[in-house]
Amino acid sequence: MANIVVSGEQLQEAFREVAAMVDSTVGATAGPRGNTIGISKPYGGPEVTKDGYKVMKGIKPEKPLHSAIVSTIAQSASQCNDKVGDGTTTCSILTSNMIMEASKSIAAGNDRIC
Fold first, then answer.
1. For residue 63, is pLDDT > 70?
2. pLDDT of 42 higher than 90
3. How many structural domains comprise the chain?
């Protein structure tokens, strides 16, 4: 498969879409009143879980760009899991919200670096 190079507004839109998807999907499992999520598997029946990390790993978008962004967010949750052992759902939600807030700031004309 050839490399895909995306920049500018198209990349920002992809980040916003993926961040919203991760926030709504993984965020639904957060807390004691969180919902259980069904994850379809290529073999056997679906896995029903409330673990945000498993839900995060189960998100498989069709678009290659979206898949790359999801893997980037999943990497932050994986590092949280490796170093702390807990808080992966919160880490995924915070990462998604940081992306959405940064997008709002960029859209408002603020500097991308600061």
1. yes
2. no
3. 1
